[in-house]
């Protein structure tokens, strides 16, 4: 089985865009690391805009096709270390450094493009050596330099104003940093790009018009195998699980349970891996949920619960972008459906819920019951299965799936 890297990266960038939106809902006062206030900047579609700017500059700098491909992928993922609080991760030197280090760590095992981690690590370095890692001059990877400039330009852009009212001001801000934050070569490339009206028109409309980025993005005619795709799924499970202090290893735990049950009942190895991947990605939609709701240590209001329920909808939206994994997308996004038709988001009936989806759903509940939470210790196996048995009696979940999980765990 082979999966399009292009579609995978674009799906993951959607997940990061959703994280940026949810982060903006949690934000208060924001300051950049030079002290300027950016409280009005929402960071919505930040990665998409930065990617567009970076590619335009990269082309002027005559980067090779392989360098442009790597720049494209890296820029879409450059704030992966800040996915859970993109705004606060950009306002103070210690948080800037932290999200660069975390992003490099998360992407260190990315299956394609070996330089992604280093580029992300150094994407806030200043040319004069005053950045968080103190790297200086041309020791800073050129892709990192490009992303840094694109970042600052996007930070300076006011979504509430038409581009013609701010282009001169932004151009002056960027130009004034020649020799300190950016090299003369990079500034020259930026001035060439920004001198064209079409650059600013595209920047103004790119959030709602995906084809603008599609038209300049390199064609990634690259396909990865299931093991490589699982490596990417692990990367995103780490982001998902770090979204809430309640779920430090929730997705990993479910993936392991799903694999055990799948192996126990005799699925072939490829299908077992697909089930494991579904477990890793089942909560990817939680990146769209504000942390203030995920971390609420009290009963949720009706409105808050409605927002929580949307996470499985977003899981399906994100994974459906990867057309090569339709079964994984279904298994991952159906884990809150109930046999009596009262689940969410699609209110599927028993006949519409596959065995694989039922297994993922049971594993999700069991993992949640047995893991520690700040407000309680995890339940032991007996108590957890007692609750699951009660849910079977109420026609919420599948009796066969519960019994398979019991047997698989007893076998180990």
Task: Please give a structural write-up.
- It is a single chain.
- By secondary structure, the chain is mostly helical.
- The chain has two domains: 31-216, Hypothetical protein af1432, CATH 1.10.3210; 223-411, Hypothetical protein af1432 (Orthogonal Bundle).
- The chain has 19 helices and two strands.
- It has helices at 5-26, 46-60, 65-76, 93-106, 116-121, 142-156, 167-175, 184-194, 197-205, 211-216, 226-243, 250-264, 269-281, 291-294, 302-320, 326-333, 355-370, 381-393, 399-411, and strands at residues 2-4, 223-225.
- Strands 1-2 form a two-stranded antiparallel ribbon.
- Helix 2 (46-60) packs antiparallel against helix 3 and helix 17 (355-370) crosses helix 19 (399-411).
- The longest helix is centred in the first third of the chain and has 22 residues, at 5-26.
- The radius of gyration is 23 Å and the shape is elongated.
- The two termini are 29 Å apart.
- Residues 225-412 form the HD-GYP domain.
């Amino acid at each position: 089985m082979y999966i399009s890297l292009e579609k995978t990266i674009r799906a993951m960038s959607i997940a990061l865009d959703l994280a940026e939106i949810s982060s903006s809902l949690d934000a208060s006062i924001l300051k950049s690391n030079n002290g300027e206030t950016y409280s009005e900047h929402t960071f919505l579609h930040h990665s998409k805009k930065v990617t567009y700017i970076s590619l335009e500059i990269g082309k002027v700098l005559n980067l090779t096709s392989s360098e442009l491909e790597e720049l494209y992928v890296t820029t879409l993922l450059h704030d992966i270390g800040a996915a859970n609080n993109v705004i606060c991760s950009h306002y103070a030197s210690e948080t800037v450094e932290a999200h660069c280090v975390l992003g490099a760590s998360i992407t260190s095992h990315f299956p394609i493009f070996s330089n992604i981690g280093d580029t992300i690590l150094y994407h806030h370095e200043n040319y004069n050596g005053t950045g968080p890692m103190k790297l200086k001059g041309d020791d800073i990877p050129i892709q990192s330099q490009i992303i840094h400039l694109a970042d600052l330009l996007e930070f300076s852009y006011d979504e509430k104003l038409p581009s013609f009212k701010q282009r001169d001001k932004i151009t002056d801000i960027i130009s004034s940093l020649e020799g300190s934050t950016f090299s003369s070569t990079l500034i020259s490339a930026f001035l060439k790009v920004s001198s064209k009206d079409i650059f600013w028109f595209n920047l103004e409309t790119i959030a709602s018009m995906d084809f603008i980025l599609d038209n300049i993005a390199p064609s990634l005619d690259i396909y990865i195998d299931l093991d490589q795709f699982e490596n990417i799924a692990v990367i995103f499970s780490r982001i998902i699980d770090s979204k809430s202090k309640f779920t430090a290893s929730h997705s990993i735990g479910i993936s392991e349970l799903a694999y055990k049950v799948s192996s126990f009942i005799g699925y072939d190895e490829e299908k077992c891996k697909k089930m494991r991947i579904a477990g890793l990605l089942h909560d990817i939609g939680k990146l769209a949920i504000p942390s203030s709701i995920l971390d609420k240590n009290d009963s949720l209001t009706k409105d808050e619960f409605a927002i929580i329920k949307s996470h499985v909808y977003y899981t399906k939206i994100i994974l459906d972008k990867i057309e090569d994994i339709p079964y994984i997308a279904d298994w991952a996004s159906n884990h809150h459906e109930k046999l009596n038709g009262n689940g969410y988001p699609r209110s599927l009936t028993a006949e519409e819920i596959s065995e694989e989806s039922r297994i993922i759903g049971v594993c999700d509940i069991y993992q949640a019951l047995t893991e520690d939470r700040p407000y309680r210790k995890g339940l032991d196996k007996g108590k957890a299965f007692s609750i699951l048995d009660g849910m079977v009696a109420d026609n919420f979940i599948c009796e066969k799936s519960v019994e398979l999980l019991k047997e698989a765990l007893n076998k180990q």
